[in-house]
């Protein structure tokens, strides 16, 4: 708790240096504290009518907010593990922490590069910005899209390939034990490791000189499958209820599932039933995957007195 408080205070202090140039002392302090907490908690709430679009040229905003989002998104267990590793030096970084950090960094870099390429010439988003500010805005949006929901560029003006990219990032979401939603970075990472292991025809699922149980991998697959099926079913209902393009509905739905909060200005157009489905999806996205994981981890298959004969089936 102390570590979290210190992180938020440091973030607020740096943000204050930016806001004090625009607002009076009390307002600057209030805005700094609010946005620091909002970023670390991956809430995505901003006290400005156009979110953080007016600060897309600010180095402080484009650096501090993403760092706070990253720290809040990797999970409290990971933060504690990192604290003990660097300051107390009495524990190693766990496999969960390593996967959460590396997957988060990979997704940030991947999202930044692809967003930069896709939106480079889009004058309604990155097109009018100088080269390095384009990179900064793409980086900011890549970080915040997975969990927090801040924006410095117009989400409604994004090109469709970028919209699809953001849907994927939002679906993956944050890391276990964090304030974000989605299937979680460790789940996605575990699926990738399993695919590589299967392609290499290895017997054991290994990472960082540790062997991971295939039972955990199977649970990760179940979480992904259930999440995809849930999103697919709700998307089908939204398509049935609304006369709106599928990609627009999909973005709104997955944004709710990942508890991100980004919108392409679609929410006001939805019917009451569709809004209810979106609200339920927010709850499922935040609680569902974690609850499913805990439930599966406690399920035990009682050993019977018999075992059926094994038989292989054709796949692929």
From TrEMBL:
Keywords: Cell membrane, Ion transport, Membrane, Transmembrane, Transmembrane helix, Transport. The chain crosses the membrane at residues 6-23, 30-48, 60-87, 99-118, 163-196, 216-241, 276-296. Its main location: membrane. This is Trk-type K+ transport systems, membrane component. It holds the Pfam family TrkH. One of its GO terms (cellular component) is plasma membrane. GO terms for molecular function: monoatomic cation transmembrane transporter activity. It is found in: Cell membrane. Coiled coil: none annotated. It is a multi-pass membrane protein. It comes from Leptotrichia hongkongensis.
């Amino acid at each position: 708790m102390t570590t979290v408080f210190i992180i938020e205070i440091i973030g607020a202090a740096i943000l204050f240096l930016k806001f004090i140039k625009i607002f009076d002392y009390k307002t600057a302090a209030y805005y700094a504290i609010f946005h620091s907490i909002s970023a670390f908690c991956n809430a995505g709430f901003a006290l400005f009518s156009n979110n953080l679009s007016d600060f897309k040229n600010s180095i402080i905003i484009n650096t501090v907010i993403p760092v706070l989002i990253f720290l809040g998104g990797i999970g409290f267990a990971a933060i504690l593990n990192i604290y003990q590793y660097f300051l107390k030096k009495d524990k190693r970084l766990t496999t969960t922490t390593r996967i959460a950090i590396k997957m988060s960094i990979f997704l940030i870099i991947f999202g930044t590069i692809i967003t930069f390429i896709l939106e480079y010439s889009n004058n309604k988003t990155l097109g009018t910005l100088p080269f390095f500010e384009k990179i900064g805005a793409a980086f900011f949006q890549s970080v915040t899209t997975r969990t927090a929901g801040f924006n410095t560029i117009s989400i409604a003006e994004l090109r469709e390939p970028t919209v699809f990219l953001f849907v994927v990032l939002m679906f993956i979401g944050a890391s276990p034990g964090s304030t974000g939603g989605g299937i979680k970075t460790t789940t996605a990472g575990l699926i990738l490791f399993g695919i590589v292991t299967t392609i290499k025809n290895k017997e054991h699922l290994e990472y960082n000189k540790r062997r991971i149980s295939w039972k955990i991998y199977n649970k990760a697959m179940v979480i992904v499958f259930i999440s995809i099926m849930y999103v697919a079913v709700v998307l089908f209902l939204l398509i049935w209820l609304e006369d709106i393009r599928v990609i627009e509905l999909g973005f709104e739905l997955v944004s709710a599932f990942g508890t991100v909060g980004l919108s392409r200005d679609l929410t006001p157009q939805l019917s009451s039933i569709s809004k209810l489905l979106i609200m339920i999806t927010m709850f499922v996205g935040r609680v569902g995957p974690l609850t499913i994981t805990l439930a599966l981890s406690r399920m035990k298959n009682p050993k019977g007195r018999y075992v059926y004969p094994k038989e292989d089936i054709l796949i692929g």
